[in-house]
Amino acid sequence: MAKSTKKKTAAGRPKASVKVSRTAGGKSKKTRVAKVAAAPVVSDAVVLDRLFAVIESRRGADPTVSHSARLLSRGPAKVAQKFGEEAVECLIEAVAGNRDALIAESADVLYHLLVLWVSSDVGPEEVWAELIRREGISGIAEKAARAKPVVVRRKVGTSKIP
After folding, report:
1. Cα separation of 130 and 143, whole Å?
2. Please, are residues 112 and 86 in contact by the beta-carbon 8 Å criterion?
3. CA-CA distance, 71 to 87, in Å (whole number)?
4. Lowest-confidence range among 4-13, 62-71, 88-97?
């Protein structure tokens, strides 16, 4: 059975790993494995804001040069259809348990959602504001608050009397 211990530099970054394994004779064998620290991934909406700005700048651009311009030139209905297709592909990968494909399809969904926003004249700040408004509200309560009351319409007029 192998276990690994990580050595850290003074800055706290991984320097190397020492892999300890047992040989056929039962003795321990140590192997040093160099580790390269991965660049930290920034996780925030700023990347979506930047992507939105790029997509918005493609509105009216030459559809033969820009994929975003080609999508936008087809109108909101086609953009919505493409978003739906990407969402279904994302769901398929999630159900199949294909983690890497789910990540790739999720990026496609987010891109096509932003194209849909541009096509429909919706700004990310409007969506962010709606998410902020919903913060701290139970999902059940929020959904109930936006449910429209059912209106029962009765037929008005005369009825025949037998």
Report:
1. 13
2. yes
3. 16
4. 4-13
What confidence score (pLDDT) does residue 124 get? 93
pLDDT at 30: 57
**3-class SS of residue 11:** coil
3-state SS class at 88: helix
Measured distance CA(93)–CA(90) in Å, rounded: 5
Q: Do residues 56 and 118 lie in contact, with contact meaning Cβ atoms separated by under 8 Å?
A: yes
DSSP-assigned letter for residue 154: -
- 46-135: what CATH class? mainly alpha
pLDDT at site 21: 55
User: pTM score > 0.70 for this model?
Assistant: no
Residues 6+ apart with CB under 8 A from 78: 71
**Cα(17)–Cα(12) distance, rounded to whole angstroms?**
14
The residue assigned the tokens 């059940």 is: 140
In this structure, what DSSP letter does residue 58 have? T
Distance CA 18, CA 126 (A): 50
* Residue-range domain boundaries for the chain: 46-135
